[in-house]
Design goal:
The chain is an alpha+beta fold and 597 residues long. It folds into four domains: 214 residues, Beta-Lactamase (2-Layer Sandwich); 102 residues, PAS domain (Beta-Lactamase, 2-Layer Sandwich); 90 residues, Helix Hairpins (Orthogonal Bundle); 159 residues, Heat Shock Protein 90 (2-Layer Sandwich), CATH 3.30.565.10. The chain contains 18 helices and 22 strands. It starts with 5 loop residues before the first strand and ends in a 14-residue tail after the last strand.
């Protein structure tokens, strides 16, 4: 059996005393069947000198050119140079056998053993082996001291499930005279299973006939075992995600759909392939789609995490509310490579919020119902004024001659009274109206003034005097005006009712607290808080009134806390009770100058 000469090319050996000249060149020259055919560096002058020093036939100023040369079978390379590590992959891709540099004094065979890569060459006619390195023998479990194994012997080492696949790949490479790159399993005589990665490259004769294949085989068992462990962990994680009560999904950097867990797909009523091919936002409620797209666009530009409340359509066509949290995963260059999304069902919370909003509105309307007498009194004043001035104006016009000047004065009074009545009605309408909370810059002193005016008739009816002590130059607050009116109405009406039998004073005070928050206090001159129950007065359904619902103070507490403030009371068993609540001051830049008029 003939042993064909294998041509070796060295990459990166540009000095007579380099690692290549000390270890690789003697090893190549000392092995039968190997010939040092070329040297490649990135410098033409050094490449020429190295070729002369090593006795190489050719030299290349571009390592990739030597790697792609069909006359070179084996590449020897130093991987201590970072730039050379990419060349190793290029050589393997080109179907070359690759020897990586060993420390000085070690042989090429030792370098192959360290890399777990063996080289080989076999001729196409007869499938006879032309060259098998020692590492190849070790990988496949053959004895290098014995005769080269026959093709059938090598085939018997292949795993039964992979044998046909590899034979098909080789036959195709022969027909097409092409490279082949394949992974497969082998089984050693002792039962040990190994994974092999083989790369082969065709060699043609001068006449253009396919005569042989040369290449390398790498033992990748450890890598495969690691991959299998990772796959097992991934499968376990997928099973956990599939059973967690949380919708989980993974998107690519351009929002391409990569993964969705089972519970999410079941909710949407989609198969995985249907979900992957679906249109972005297709399951989102039309009213939420604009917000969703705006959030996605902002996140795409900034690469920042964000969260969004939106409604998603179920497989049966119904919608439920979800809180979706989007978190980016970046590579070592800071580029977003994945978006991890976790969505939590918040439908129950949303329904509870709506129920609370409905109850708050009902409580506000109920409280206004208790003020019918006061409202009637407040509206009666402008109506009476209007009637009186209308009669007076009519009399002035009946004079002979008509006194137009006095009639005009009466008409102006009618207009003023009409404006007053309109203002009263608008305030009542705002409290009755059922609408979503609207946060805006609000002057708390204005709100106190409005409610003191509205509650004035109720207070006078019971001999109660409403007084205010309002701090000038208070900052604005960002709040829902109607909700603040409701809080003040609840506190002031409670104060009026506890002193309506004896009369007294209801004081409303505003000031700036030491913590920088706006503080409002409502003080009455009644009997004080119920002894021993001061900590219960803000609990839902707790009341000291025979006809009370026990929700007024609970709702007031909820409103204040939703604005970032707090509410409390003192006066346990003493003379009078004081209710306090605070509101955050708006940032200075949002507060208009005091003298801005």
């Amino acid at each position: 059996m003939t042993q064909k000469q294998i041509c070796v090319g060295i990459v990166g050996a540009n000095a007579p005393k380099s690692w290549a000249n000390v270890s690789h060149v003697p090893a190549i020259n000392g092995l039968s069947g190997l010939r040092l055919a070329a040297v490649a560096t990135r410098n033409e002058q050094s490449a020429r000198k190295a070729a002369e020093a090593f006795g190489a036939d050719r030299w290349f100023a571009d390592p990739l050119a030597m790697i792609g040369d069909d006359q070179i079978d084996v590449i020897t390379i130093s991987v201590n140079v970072p730039a050379h590590r990419k060349l190793v992959l290029a050589a393997l891709s080109a179907g070359k056998a690759v020897y990586c540099e060993a420390p000085l004094g070690r042989t090429v065979a030792e370098a192959q053993r360290l890399a777990r890569t063996g080289s080989w060459a076999w001729q196409v006619p007869g499938r006879d082996a032309l060259h098998l390195s020692n590492e190849w023998y070790r990988i496949y479990g053959f004895d290098p001291k014995e005769v080269m194994p026959a093709w059938e012997e090598w085939l018997q080492r292949l795993h039964p499930e992979d044998r046909e696949k590899l034979q098909t790949t080789i036959e195709q490479a022969i027909r097409e005279r092409s490279d082949h790159d394949v992974e497969f399993r082998i089984v050693l005589p002792d039962g040990t299973l190994r994974w092999i990665h083989t790369v082969g490259h065709p060699r043609l004769s001068t006449a253009g006939e396919l005569v042989e294949f040369a290449g390398s085989s790498m033992d990748i068992t450890e890598r495969k075992q690691t991959e299998q462990r990772l796959q097992a962990h991934e499968m376990e994680l997928r099973q956990i995600l599939d059973h967690t009560p949380l919708f989980a999904a993974v998107f690519g950097p351009s929002r391409e759909r990569l993964y969705a867990n089972r519970i999410a797909l079941d909710y949407l009523g989609l198969r995985f392939d249907e979900w992957r091919q679906g249109r972005a936002g297709a399951q989102i409620h039309p009213e939420d789609l604009k917000r969703y797209k705006a959030a996605v666009d902002r996140a795409s530009l900034s690469g920042s995490a964000y969260e969004l409340e939106l409604r998603m359509r179920k497989g049966d066509g119904n919608y439920r509310w979800f809180l979706a949290r989007y978190n980016p995963v970046r590579d070592d260059k800071g580029q977003v490579r994945r978006w991890y999304v976790a969505s939590t069902d918040i439908e129950d919370r949303k329904q509870a919020e709506q129920l609370q909003a409905d109850f708050t509105h009902a409580s506000r309307v109920s409280t206004l119902g208790e003020m019918v007498a006061s409202i009637s009194h407040e509206l009666a004043q402008p109506i009476t004024i209007t009637t009186a001035h209308a009669k007076a104006s009519l009399r002035w016009l009946q004079h002979d001659p008509p006194n137009v000047t006095e009639a005009l004065k009466g008409t102006e009074k009618i207009i003023e009274a009409g404006a007053l009545a309109s203002e009263v009605i608008n305030r009542l309408r705002s409290l009755y109206k059922k609408s979503s909370p609207k946060r805006e810059l609000v002057s708390i002193n204005e709100v106190v003034g409005e409610m003191a005016g509205m509650m004035g008739g109720e207070a006078r009816e019971h001999g109660v005097s409403i007084r205010t002590d309002l701090k000038n130059d208070l900052p604005m607050t960002v709040a829902d005006r109607v909700q603040l009116q409701q809080v003040l109405m609840n506190l002031m009406l409670n104060g009026i009712q506890v002193i309506k039998d004896t009369g007294g004073v209801l004081m409303v005070k505003s000031q700036l607290g030491e913590d920088g928050q706006i503080q409002i206090s409502v003080h009455d001159t009644g009997p004080g808080l119920p002894t021993g129950k001061a900590d219960q007065i803000f609990d839902a359904f707790f009341t000291t009134k025979p006809q009370g619902s026990g929700m007024g103070l609970a709702i007031s507490k909820s409103i204040v806390e939703s604005h970032g403030g707090r509410i409390w009371a003192n006066g346990d068993g003493g003379r009078g009770a004081t209710f306090h609540f605070t509101l955050p001051a708006a940032p200075a830049k949002t507060n208009p100058p005091v003298d801005a008029a």
